[in-house]
Design brief:
The chain is of the alpha+beta class and 107 residues long. It contains 5 helices and 3 strands.
Length: 107
């Protein structure tokens, strides 16, 4: 079995990875033996994982999720699968062009 996973780092950022041994890999990240990105952002917390039959499928999904924005990753973590298509960057751009989006934080 293989896994795609998301870690929340100490600074609130997300790290997306894939592995064949999820427990060992998360432990490596915690110990500073993981990716360079997580070494300076410890501790990390496993916030989402999905199991795949093959490592190449897990790796392909990792690359897909790495291309997503923060809101889309947060929807995946929350299990809000209905929101995922709406949060696609093209969809967001189209909605903004039609004036359907407002700036957050006032005005």
């Amino acid at each position: 079995m293989a896994w795609t996973y998301i870690l929340r780092c100490r600074d609130g950022s997300f790290y997306v990875g894939s592995t064949v041994d999820l427990e060992r890999r998360v432990s490596q990240h915690q110990l500073g033996e993981g990716a360079a990105y997580t070494r300076t952002r410890r501790p990390v917390e496993l916030v989402w994982a999905a199991e795949f039959d093959r490592i190449d499928d897990a790796f392909a999904y990792e690359k897909r999720v790495q291309g997503w924005g923060r809101r889309k990753r947060e929807a995946l973590i929350a299990g809000d699968f209905e929101a995922l298509p709406e949060l696609a960057s093209r969809s967001w751009s189209a909605r903004r062009a039609r004036g359907e989006l407002r700036r957050e934080g006032g005005s």
